[in-house]
């Protein structure tokens, strides 16, 4: 399963990329609004660092405008994936862009039928939001299971990109269900590195080594 980081902040992306575990980046208008400077230059820099798929979202709502904006975003760098919302206009724009060879990530997916329609329109990725479903009392990961099953049954080439990830358990469940990608906030990736038994074990190893060295002295 691929790991994308969900941020538009270069300072957060660089240290993760240096670890060698990062496959791509997802951004959205809210994330990009938190970053100063020219958004297109920021996207170009992110692409340079990651050398993998970088989702950049349109901010228009009409199909023709989405297509125009999508072409402009795709021209920034070969790694850009154009992100469009799941609406009728978004699906229409996805079909046009996909037919032109531009990869599209259809976002704000909240049902299996939405994911199915996006896949039929040629989406490279669909982004179901599991955390937001959990927030309203639904089970977000059940949606991932449904989408993975449907895509496997009909051999869609569209990748299931699990979004709105809130904690490491979402990551584990996504991997067990066979999702293709998880996009994760930096803070949640940091949680994946932490376990108290690892810290305790390392501390004990080092103390034992120090004692052994002192005894030999």
Concise summary:
The chain is α/β, with parallel strands linked by helices and 217 residues long. The protein has a single domain (2-216), classed as Aldolase class I (TIM Barrel), CATH 3.20.20. It has helices spanning 10-19, 29-33, 39-50, 63-74, 88-99, 112-120, 130-135, 140-154, 168-177, 186-192, 196-216, and strands spanning 2-6, 24-26, 54-57, 80-85, 104-109, 125-128, 159-162, 181-184.
Describe the 3D structure.
It is a single chain. This protein has 11 helices and 8 strands. The longest helix has 21 residues, at 196-216. Helices cover 55% and strands 17% of the residues. The chain has an 8-stranded parallel β-barrel with strand order 1-2-3-4-5-6-7-8, surrounded by 7 helices. The mean pLDDT is 97. Helix 1 links the parallel strand 1 (2-6) and strand 2 (24-26). With 217 residues, the protein is an alpha/beta fold. It has one domain (2-216): Aldolase class I (TIM Barrel, Alpha-Beta Barrel).
Features:
TIM Barrel; single chain; 8-stranded parallel β-barrel; 8 strands; globular; 17% strand; 217 residues; alpha/beta
């Amino acid at each position: 399963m691929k790991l994308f980081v969900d941020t538009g902040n270069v300072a957060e992306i660089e240290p993760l990329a240096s670890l060698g575990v990062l496959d791509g980046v997802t951004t959205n208008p809210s994330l990009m609004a938190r970053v100063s400077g020219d958004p297109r230059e920021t996207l170009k820099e992110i692409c340079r660092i990651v050398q993998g798929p970088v989702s950049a979202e349109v901010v228009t709502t009409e199909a023709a405008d989405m297509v125009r904006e999508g072409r402009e975003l795709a021209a920034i760098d070969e790694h850009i994936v154009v992100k469009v919302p799941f609406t009728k206009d978004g699906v229409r724009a996805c079909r046009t862009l996909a037919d032109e060879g531009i990869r599209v990530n259809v976002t704000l997916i909240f049902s299996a039928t939405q994911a199915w329609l996006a896949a039929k329109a040629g989406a490279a990725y669909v982004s179901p939001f599991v955390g937001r479903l959990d927030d309203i009392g639904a089970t977000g990961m059940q949606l991932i299971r449904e989408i993975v099953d449907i895509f496997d049954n009909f051999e869609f080439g569209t990748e299931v990109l699990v979004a709105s990830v809130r904690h490491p358990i979402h990551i584990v469940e996504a991997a067990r269900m066979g999702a293709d990608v998880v996009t994760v906030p930096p803070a949640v990736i940091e949680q994946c590195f932490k376990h108290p038994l690892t810290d305790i074990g390392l501390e004990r190893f080092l103390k034992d080594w120090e004692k052994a060295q002192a005894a030999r002295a």
